[in-house]
Structures are given as C-alpha cells and as structure tokens.
Amino acid sequence: MRVLAYLTAATAAFAARVRGDDPERGDVPGWVMITVMTAALVLAILIPFREAIVDAVTNALTSVTSG
User: Fold this and answer.
1) Residue 27: helix, strand or coil by DSSP?
2) Contacts of residue 16, Cβ cutoff 8 Å, sequence gap at least 6
3) Which of 15, 16, 59, 64 could be bridged to 21 by S-S, CB 3.0 to 4.6 A?
C-alpha cells in the first residue's frame, strides 16, 4: 500500500511540473540573466586588475604559509 501511495504522489508531482503548476519552479530567464551579468562583472573586474589580484592573493598566501 505504501508503494502505491508513493507512486501516486510522485506521479502527481511530476504531472504538476510538466503542466507548469509548480509555484517554486522559478523564473528561468531571470536566473540566466543574473548568471550572465555576474560572469560579466567578474570579467570586467578581473581583466584590468588581474595582476594586482594575483599579487594580493600570492602575498596573502605567502604570509600565511611562511609563518
């Protein structure tokens, strides 16, 4: 009987997702836009300041590991 209840619940959840009735599904284009914009910001910061960032991280790691 438990197996039947589990299969019924799983089938209902799958059908709701396929129909698009799931309120927690989210806004896929919005998340894609946020991800692309975040990547663009990282590149915009990394490209001109790459040498300074590498030097800062190297100095930080050296100060921690040389102690």
Assistant:
1) coil
2) 22
3) 16
